[in-house]
Amino acid sequence: MSSLRNDNSSSEGEMPCPETKPKFRPLNCDDEDKKKFPYVEVCGPDKSSRRFALGTRASFAVDRFNKKLVDAVKPVVCVEAFKEGEDPIEFGPDAPLMSMCTWNLRVVQEAPFQPIGVGDKIPNGELTYLDGCGKLQTHLIYDLVREKRVVFFGVPGAFTPTCSLKHVPGFIERAAEILDRGINEIVCITVNDPFVVKEWEKTYPENKHVRFLCDGSAIWTKKIGLELDLYDRGMGVRSRRYSLMICDTVVRIANIEEGGGLETSTASRMLKDLNTGKDMVLPP
Hints:
- The chain is α+β, with helices and mostly antiparallel strands.
- The chain has helices spanning about 60-65, 140-145, 160-180, 195-200, 220-225, 265-275, and strands at about 40-45, 50-55, 75-80, 90, 105-110, 125-130, 135-140, 150-155, 185-190, 210-215, 225-230, 235-240, 240-245, 250-255.
- Strand 1 (about 40-45) and strand 2 (about 50-55) form a beta hairpin.
C-alpha cells in the first residue's frame, strides 16, 4: 500500500518549489504620522525651501540647487545644519541629509576664486601622473616651484584640436629657448585623468623638456580661478588656457586667455615677456 504524499513535496534530490510568490506586507498607515513620507527641507539661495527624501546625498541637493541658478556669481557649495546659538555643521558631499529637532538645513554659497594674477602667491595642491611603470604618482605644487622659476601652461583637455596642434607643440618647440632664460622647468597642466594624459604625451615623441601633469577634478584649477565651464559641450569643468611664470610660489607673469582662442598664452608670448624682463616687475 502506497503512502500518502503531499503534491507540493519533491522527490529526493529536487529542490522544493514555493506555492506562491512572497507577499510584502503593506506599511501600516493607520497612524497619521506614518502617512507622511520621510523628507527634509533645505532652505535655498532665494530663501524658499526644497524637499528631499530623508537620506539623500548632500551633493545631489547641491547639484539640484545649482541647476536652478542662472549665471550665478555665488554657486552653492554645500548644505549645512544650523541652530541659533550653535556653530553650523556642514554636510560632506556623500553625507546623507537628515534633520534633528530644532536644527534646520540651508545651503552655503561662496563666490568662485578670482583669477590668479601677477604678485599673487599660488595655492598648494596636488597634481598626478603615471610613472614609467604605469603607477600613479602625485606631485605637490609647492615641491615643483619652491626656490625655482617654473612655467606652467594650462589647457582645456588632452587630444583637443587647439591644445594638441598648437598650444602644446609651441611649448615643445620653444622649450630650450625658455629654459635658457633661467627657467628650471616647463609643466603642462590639463584637467584629465593620468591614463588619458599618458597616452596623449606619447603623441609627442620629440618632446624633451615639457612635463605633463594632471588636475583630474580641476581642484587646483578652481583654486587659481581658471576653471572653464564646458557642461553644455558635455565636457564638464575644464581649464581656461593660460601660461604662468612662477618664482618661488609667486606669480611673475600671467598670460590668461579670455575666450577660447590662443593668443596670449602661447610659448612665443612667454618667451617675449621673459626677454623683456616682464618677470622682474611686480605690482606695487
